[in-house]
Design goal:
Elements lengths: L30 H11 L10 H6 L5 H8 L8 H11 L15 H9 L6 H10 L6 E2 L3 H4 L4 H11 L4 E2 L1 H4 L6 E3 L2 H10 L4 H19 L7 H10 L1 H12 L4 H18 L4 H13 L3 H17 L3 H17 L3 H17 L3 H17 L3 H17 L3 H18 L2 H17 L3 H18 L3 H16 L3 H17 L4
Antiparallel strand pairs: 1-3, 2-3
Helix pairs in contact: 1-3, 6-8, 11-13, 11-14, 13-14, 13-15, 14-15, 14-16, 15-16, 16-17, 16-18, 17-18, 18-19, 18-20, 19-20, 20-21, 20-22, 21-22, 22-23, 22-24, 23-24, 24-25
Length: 487
Amino acid sequence: MPTLAVVASLRPGCPLGAGWKKPLELLPYDLAAARDTFHARSSEIYLGDPDLDGLLKELDGWPIAVTVLARRTGEYPRAKDLAEAWRTHHSALLVSGSSRRDADLGACVGLSLAHPRMNDAAKRLLGLLALSPDGIDQDDMNKLLPGEGNPAAATLRAVGGLTTDEYYRLKDRDRPRMWMPAPLRDYIGTRFPASNDDQNRWVRLYCRRCRRMGNQIGDKGSAGVVQRFRAELGNTQEAIRLGLTGVVLAEACMGAAGLGQLGYITSVDVRPILRQAAAAALRLRDRGLAADCLLNLGRIALTRSDMSELQVAAERALTLSRQSKWISGEAQSTCLLADLADCRSDHTIARALIGQAATMYHRIRDVQGEANCAYMMSRIAIHRREYTDGLRRAQEAQVVYRRIGELLGEANCLAIYGSVALGRYEYAEATQHLRAAISLYQEVGNTGGPADCFRGLGDIYLGENKLAEAEDQYMLAREICEQIDLA
């Protein structure tokens, strides 16, 4: 709107617009707008300071926080110093005792809290929102505050000034999420925290959901599960952390096991939580649950090429699985140790360990486990350039994967076929297999697999002297690796 000079924001936060058009939806600042506002309010004291953008990102684009914090620049010579003060004092740095709503966070929030429509249920929801860096899905309101959640959310929308429906970030108007920016979450959480009962209900919701979603990955349609996981990753991690220090310890440990499964397939590094959860499960004397957490810790360590942590996690999981007589856990631990041996090119040891694991899987009639062993054998054969044996074993695994609907395993087999065809300069066949693998990886929400396939496609185009196309594929692979910090 090039002719617009002023936009006025009003409470309530959802005013009706003119009859012929929707009301203007005021969104949080993007980084450029936050930077401009900060400089305008601070006489450009930090102009060109390389540490300013990092600080502004932590304010979640909330205009009042940007404005008030800019007023403190006279007390701190560098953005680095102000950022350190912010990370130490958080929202206390935004409270000056002024009655001006544009100069004091407390005065601004107080206007909404004193609204005639504000009630106890809405304040309880505020306490839960303060726990939720990803906001709260509208469908979860009544789960968290039975019978009161939806009315409380409606009250907060009518009051305005405290929350927003986070359409702008998730781009999904079918799943609205009520959200508060970080400075406000800290302010509300410090002064109006959720009760123990409300907090425990919040922790249980996300821990149980994470455990359930972790068991759903790898199959058809699990990309939707992964999308939901990513949308609530911050909430889930915070719920597990709180649970590990509270009265819902067992559920937090089970949530952590699910988090590990999801972290592995999405290449999200959740190892710190898994370490805490494994120790907590041992305090509960649940060796099997501790082993489950350690197995996922080892798998993620493998994707991060952290061989030291992989070895420690796999060996500890093996011991705990044997102590708890969990045969599947013992087999999975043995496979991880085989992965370790393979990474060290100890192929004889790796094959022996895989054979042991396959025997255990056969004993408990775990056909997917046996297929996983066949796939691992095929991968080792490929590493040794024993292509005929490698393809045969991959085909054996693929038959099982396809029969039981295990799409991730099938994608891994297709990637094997593409790799072999590429090594034989059979570019058309390699392209077909790699693109089919990418499609399946994306269907189950896997992140790392497509990166390897895009690199393979880049090699194909490079071999065909199609340099521009090769660069495009390498860039796709690089973008994925940068996204998961593996570049």
